[in-house]
Amino acid sequence: MLQAATGKLFTNRENPRQKDRKGVIYSNLNLGAFERFSTRIGILVSLESSHTPAALGYEMTEYMEAADQAPGVLVSRAMAAYIGDFADVASFSLQVICSPDVHIAERLLHQRHRPGDYPPTERLARFYDASVRVTEPELLAFEQFADQLIDLPRTNYLAVIQAIRTYVAAVHRMSDDLNLAYTLLVMCIESLAQKFDGHEATWVDIPDQKRAGVDEALANVSEQDAQKVREAVLEVIHPRLGFRFVQFIMAHLPAEYFSVQADAQKYPIGRRDLEAALQNLYGVRSSYVHTLKPLTKEFLHFASHRETWEDDGKLTFTFQGLFRLVRAVIIEFVRKAPKIEHEPCNYESDNPSLLRLRVAPQHWIYDPAGFEAQSSRRYFQGLVELLDQCLVEYPNRKLHRPNQIIDKGLSIQPQMSEGQNVPFLALWWLSSAYLGHDPERRAYTENEVELLNKPSVDSLITQTLIGSDSEWTPTVHQLQLDRYYTQRYKSSGIRVPTNVEACMALTLAERHRREGEMSSALEALTSAAENFPHLIQLRTLAANFDPSTPIAWLTIIYPSIATQQANLECVGL
Length: 573
What we know:
Layout: H1 2-5, E1 17-27, E2 29-30, E3 36-39, E4 42-46, E5 54-64, H2 80-94, E6 98-99, H3 102-109, E7 132-133, H4 136-150, H5 154-173, H6 178-196, H7 208-217, H8 223-236, H9 241-251, H10 271-291, H11 297-302, E8 308-311, E9 314-317, H12 319-336, H13 376-393, H14 403-412, H15 418-435, H16 446-453, H17 457-465, H18 474-487, H19 498-514, H20 518-531, H21 536-543, H22 553-557
Parallel strand pairs: 2-7
Antiparallel strand pairs: 1-5, 1-6, 3-4, 4-5, 8-9
Helix pairs in contact: 2-4, 2-5, 5-6, 5-12, 6-9, 6-10, 6-12, 9-10, 13-15, 15-17, 17-19, 18-19, 19-20, 20-21
């Protein structure tokens, strides 16, 4: 949220609210003679500290978009929304440990390495030193990087921040998981390459051995149709990712990488060696990601502050070499990326302190303003969820009759398609079944009853909840149940509570039982017991299955209504 705090993303940039924020960062960074150092993302303040990690003050001005105080309007995002990202950016740019958590900083800087292993300082220079005295050029470079970072377009900014977080995570993992640290470093660049390398896949990008079979199959197909098949294949695969990865790095290698930047290294890498090591780098990452193939013992033993090591006949980046390479590429990517001064957007969706929560149906289901043909299934799902809660807590939870929703649905019913009308009819039917039919409202027409009884997912849910046998064939019943599970996580689908799903599974078993298919009924019961293991009564039912006893699914799943059918009077929640 560092970018949002500057006001760059505001729609209304006039009269922003502002508040000064202060926090503490723990680090091995020594500011030396610089008591305060300012950047666009905050100010570092040197504090009196006689031990490692040292405490540094972090100050920043938080800008909030102008708005009158009202429900839902944030007064502040609080320091927690900013200090973590600032610590990561500072750690990345200045090559030190920085954390707002003193325990993390202490663990990293005062760790005891395992017997026989080397401390991180043997493989990675500077980061883990007890105290790092920063120079003026390094602080100026940090200031410049912060400026360029804030000026990035939002999409680029978010990608770079995530890459920086991953880079810092790799630094932290150097003390406990070297294989993961190495892989995280590669992923930093891989994420940027796949999003921003501008590569347009072509058929020749596919390796010859993988293209051959497809080309052979298309030999007798028209060129136009063959091209459509090739384009479809390209849509679902990622050709030559390793090649694109290498090309992205070479395109973002700083001009001074082998000169000025190399002067700061004890054993800097040369261009030929870098190009050779790059050919193996993506393969090392893939071997670990796909097969957990670790770095060799020899590599871990001998890799030091040199930037490459010949491992098993292949030139390989050491941790020192890879950390420097990844950092340089990210900084160069930020430098080359386009900059933008003002970019209004919905930035609060990225606020780490805000969670997107689905509003419970009792807060909107009685409001007809939101009901329309396209939302009929959403309202039906909401009623099912409330009904489930009432059945679970019966008789201690009550339910209103959604009269205004039903009246509005009837008024717009002529404009509804069949797919919109069925869930509305289902809502109306459920409401009448449990809360009673309003005598002032018209009765259901014969066509409406026929439409609701027609096999569909909405009909299956409705008949399940009113305790009615669908009277469909078991095959049709199974088909509708399968359709429910196919669509339940789609935006156009419906998802009901687990208890209702369990009832639906039992209705299938009862369908088989009524048709005399006892083995299929028992199989359906066993399947239900496995799919809903928290409902222990299903296991008991399957183990003691009696073909002569009807499966009363509502009282099995909702035992509180076993003595009498729930009567959810319209007396309020």
